[in-house]
Amino acid sequence: MYRRDDIYDKAVTGDIALHVREILRLLGEDPEREGLKKTPERVAQSLQYLTKGSLEDGVQILRSAIFEEQYSQMVLVKDIELYSTCEHHMLPFVGKCHVAYIPNGRITGLSKIARVVETFSRRLQVQERLTVQIRDCIDEALKPLGVAVVIEAVHSCMQLRGVEKSNAITTTSAFSGAFLNSARTRNEFLNLIK
Fold first, then answer.
1. pLDDT band at residue 20, thresholds of 50, 70 and 90?
2. Catalytically annotated residue among 86, 98, 125, 133
3. Is 155 noted as a catalytic residue in this protein?
């Protein structure tokens, strides 16, 4: 498991910075001008931060706070802020994630659900895979009766380039167990996140 001070590997920062300096030059910029002198290192550290989730294990995060509890109703954490980086253009996508599970004798700390979202978000990602990874992680760690995940996000790669549609929101969902097999349970979840 990583520690927060481990995300900035000095050797990696230096290697990335060399390439960023070259990219700036290829874009017609002078990497030595005042405003750009420290940009390569800042970009290198930024990229390491934005992809730090690759150093984390979501299942381990959940397992660090599992409690025996005979509660078998829906547990919902909604409107979890989400910041990720599109792997196709390396531009951010931002939104919110709603996660629910139905315990099967075991619960986890509520903050751990948000940490799992953060862990899988802080990687080069596509929203579809991100949604499924969160669901599968909770399924594996808690073995609940079901998991539901919905993500709503705006993608700057759609806003700033290409089709340039600034109001488009992408919604993805992934369900398992009771949320997949019971329309009533799934609809209860969908109504709660409206």
1. very high
2. 86
3. yes
Beta bridge partner(s), residue 100: 76, 148
Q: 3-state DSSP call for residue 146?
A: strand
Q: Which of 22, 87, 128, 140 is catalytic?
A: 87
Look up 159 and say whether it is catalytic. Answer: no
Q: Is 45 a catalytic residue?
A: no
Q: Is 98 a catalytic residue?
A: no
Question: Rounded distance, CA 95 to CA 155, Å?
Answer: 9
- Report the candidate in 119, 122, 116, 114 with the shortest Cα–Cα distance to residue 47: 122
Percent of the chain past pLDDT 90, that is, above it, reads 86
With contact defined as beta carbons under 8 Å apart, do 113 and 79 qualify? no
Task: Tell me if 130 sits within 8 A of 120, measured CB to CB.
Answer: yes
Q: List 92's β-bridge partners, or say none.
A: 85
Residue with tokens 């139905």: 102
Q: Which entry of 48, 125, 127, 133 is annotated as an active-site residue? A: 127
137 is catalytic: no
